[in-house]
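Input record (one chain):
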Amino acid sequence: QVQLVESGGGLVQAGGSLRLSCAASGRTFSRFTMGWFRQAPGKLRELVAGIRSGGSTNYADPVKGRFTISRDNAKKTVYLQMSNLKPDDTAIYYCAAGVGGSYDFWGQGTQVTVSS
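The corresponding structure, as predicted from the sequence alone:
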C-alpha cells in the first residue's frame, strides 16, 4: 500500500505561482509513475503532468511551459511547480501513483484557487 498526502495548495492571483508537494509512504516510491491530476467543478478529472520512475515527464497541453513536475526519490516526494497561473487552473489537485500504466493510489487532494 502507498499513502499520498498533498500540500501546498491555496489562493493566488492570476500570474502567480504555487508549488504543490506530495509525500508518499512505502518503500517502493522510486518504482512508481507519479502523476498530478486536477478536477474543476462540473468537469472530469484530468491528468496535468506525470513523471515516470526513470524521470521522463509528460504534460497536458494547457499547462505546458507553465508547470513542472519533479520527484525526489530520497524524500519520497513529488512536486508540481506551477507558474503564470490562470483562473482556469482553479481545481482540486490530486497526486497519484501507479505502475504499468495505471494509477492505483490517490491522495485526498489540495485546493488551488486562482483569482482574476
